[in-house]
User: What shape does this take?
Amino acid sequence: MANSGDRLRIGATLVAVSVLALGTAGIHLYLFLIEGFLGNGQMLPIYQLLFVGNFRIYVILALALLLSPLARIRSFVRLLLIAVAAASIASYFHVGVLDALGNIDKAIEVLIIVLATVDAATTEPGDDLAGRLAGGALGAVVQLVAGIAVGVVMYLILTPFLV
Assistant: This one.
């Protein structure tokens, strides 16, 4: 079992995932403020709600990855990041309003999924609440598959609201 010093270790991959999550949060905030709230008024309220919701969840999850007291739940945070990114990607293509900023954002979200999986694969389970499913190859596969499954469910719940 790993000592508590291992739980506090923050690697480059974890920092990269957090920076990417903050980057996509910034894009969603921009879309909410500039395109929606301050824009020409053509954005439907549901999209404004989704953009501000994505902003908030990405900021919260990015911080949760880096905060030492939450180190025991990093596997769950990675899973949620994968789920939110997968739901966001599916929703973007469902709506069909494709543009350069949206494509950049989706590329960032794909990188979040890839790097969160890499982080899980290179992490020792240690004291994580998920036990042996927190790290290593098995943990990475479980988190990726579960994250995508949760993301698909989130997308399916949102689909009736997407125009």
User: Anything to note?
Assistant: The chain is about 75% helix and 0% strand. The two ends are 50 Å apart (CA to CA). Confidence is low (pLDDT under 50) at residues 1-7.
